Amino acid sequence: MAFYSKRGACEQYIKEGKGAIKWTRLSGRSFAANAVRLQLHALAYNLGNFLRTLAMP
């Protein structure tokens, strides 16, 4: 049960990232450009998540 609970939480984070910051939209033609864009989106998501945890006790 604990495994499925963690899996559900991970899937929810992925869904949130796809919808909120559109991190699956990689439009660059080179692999390096897409990698940088994905890393920036992941950083923005983590920063937003961190700030949300500070704002909500």
Order of helices and strands: HH
Beta-strand content estimate: under 5%
Radius of gyration, in Å, reads 14 Å
- What is the CA-CA span between the terminal residues? 27 Å
Quick check: average pLDDT? 77
Secondary structure tally, helices: 2
What is the quaternary state of this protein?
A: single chain
Structural class: mainly alpha
Written account of the structure:
- There is one protein chain.
- By secondary structure, the chain is an all-alpha fold.
- It has one domain (2-55).
- Helix content is 77%, strand content 0%.
- It has helices at residues 2-20, 31-55.
- The radius of gyration is 14 Å and the shape is extended.
- The model has no long low-confidence stretch (mean pLDDT 77).
List keywords for this structure.
57 residues; single chain; mainly alpha
Task: Summarize the helices and strands and which ones pair or pack.
Blueprint lengths: L1 H19 L10 H25 L2
Care to give the gist of this entry?
The chain is mainly alpha-helical and 57 residues long. Helix content is 77%, strand content 0%.
